[in-house]
Amino acid sequence: MSISIVPAKLHDVWLVVPAGAVQEILGEQAWVPIAGAPAEMPGVIVWRGRAVAVLDMAPLMSGGAPLAVGERRRRTIVVGVDGATFALPVDAVREVQELPDDAQRPAQLTRLRHATMELELDGVPMPVVDLADVVRVLAPATAA
Amino acid sequence: MNDELALMVVHARNVDFAVAAARVQEVVPVDRWAGEPAIDLAQLVGVEPEGGAVRILLLARAGREPLAALVSGDVTLRHIARDHLLPLPAPLAAHVRWISHVVVSDGQQPLLVLDAERVVA
Counting one residue from A and one from B, how many pairs have CB atoms under 8 Å apart? Predict the structure, then answer.
């Protein structure tokens, strides 16, 4: 058994997103801020003719600066989670990696909310984002 | 069904906001308004108004008294093709119930469409 992951960099931290959730990787995207929304979900982008919620991972990181109004990041990962679609703005993305299933271990060296597992890639420990858990917390009514 | 929706658009800095024109019963200069305290729509949607004339929009609501909404700056009528109205994604709508749609058009500021039924005074 193996796992497929997409490593992404946000600020100085590498994290991984399960490749199975990734629908598309875009470049820099303009986004529309929505006041009153949670810091982790600050607005929307337009993707394939519909509005998709922006999911900013930075507030989940210790000391991570949230996406500011007018700020854009160089890459946007579009993911599908429990029937909903989200756009993750990040600074960099690497190619999909296939790793043995046992490459994952409980998080010890990394700290990211909604990431209880981590793995190591080229000697760099990276938290594995549990997107379903993020969505369960941020948008419980829409989680399956 | 009409392919367009008429909106009363309020211009603000960086983003515009609007309500369905069919909801607007009356537009009253604020100095002539003697009704209940009005809800500030710019404050509700977190945008900075451009300044200018301050008005009260009386918005019809089903089975309730009209909502008095305060706006300032330019208010214009704009017709938007319905297929340009993008529903706010459900995960966000759960947090921001008063915004129903967004409109993003090339060369124009984004537009947030408010649902008068869900704007709680």
Answer: 72
